[in-house]
Every structure is written in structure tokens, then in C-alpha cells.
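RECORD TYPE: inverse folding
INPUT: C-alpha cells
STRUCTURE:
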């Protein structure tokens, strides 16, 4: 092969490597979880959406928003269509809540009385997310 052919091949390889690594960089920019504050609606509730989907590189519960105010009622609206199997058995052990979600019965309401972190899990514990309670 001519020298010019080697040079062109070299440039193509460098180009492909560059495209590969720039793609990797984009993937790492996806946030592991998005922190957001709940707003208090007219009826006094802080409404949160709970679904199942991709977070970073894995799949788990997605809670948005995930930060609430203490001593203000919270309403978790679960997306029954995305929750499958045991992910529908939602447990909030610190508040004694255990609920099976269906498309017609998908609301969990409670009032957080302490600041800190509340764990929300499925019945087997592989589905897990945290709700942050602030002053
Ligand atoms: Cu599970």
C-alpha cells in the first residue's frame, strides 16, 4: 500500500476512536438521580410521582420530586403501568405503610413527622428509593 493510504487509514481510525470516546462521555453525564423539591398544592399535599425506569445505568424506582417538607402531607401517585411484579408492593417501613398498587388504586398518602431520609422499597427489597424530608 502507498504511504498516503496508511495516512488515510490512520485518520479514519483516530476518527472512530474519538467518536467512541465522545459517546462514552455523553453517557456519563446522565445524572444518577435528580433531586427536586415538591411544591405544596392547593389542597395542602406535596404530590410525588413514583414510577419504574432507568436511572443512570440501572433500573429502579424513580421518585420525582424526591424532597419534601416535614409535617406537610405527602401524596405519592404511583404509575401502575410501569410497575411490574413485586415492584407494585410498595413498602414504607418507617411509617408502617404497605400497599399493592393497581391502576385504580395507586395513591399513598402520609405525613412525614421527622426530617431525614425515608426508605421506599418493594416487597423483596430490590426496588428502593429515598425520600428526603427537610425542615
Ligand atoms: Cu422487588
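DESIGNED SEQUENCE:
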Amino acid at each position: 500500500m502507498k504511504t498516503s493510504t496508511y495516512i488515510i487509514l490512520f485518520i479514519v481510525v483516530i476518527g472512530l476512536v474519538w467518536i467512541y470516546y465522545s459517546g462514552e462521555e455523553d453517557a456519563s453525564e446522565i445524572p444518577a438521580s435528580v433531586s427536586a423539591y415538591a411544591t405544596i398544592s392547593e389542597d395542602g399535599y406535596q404530590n410525588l410521582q413514583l414510577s419504574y425506569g432507568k436511572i443512570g445505568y440501572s433500573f429502579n424506582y424513580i421518585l420525582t420530586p424526591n424532597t419534601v417538607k416535614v409535617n406537610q402531607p405527602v401524596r405519592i401517585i404511583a404509575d401502575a403501568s410501569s410497575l411490574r411484579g413485586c415492584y407494585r408492593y410498595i413498602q414504607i417501613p418507617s411509617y408502617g405503610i404497605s400497599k399493592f398498587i393497581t391502576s385504580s388504586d395507586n395513591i399513598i398518602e402520609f405525613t412525614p413527622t421527622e426530617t431525614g431520609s425515608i426508605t421506599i422499597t418493594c416487597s423483596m427489597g430490590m426496588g428502593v428509593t429515598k425520600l428526603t424530608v427537610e425542615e
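NOTES: The CA atoms of residues 3 and 72 lie 73 Å apart.
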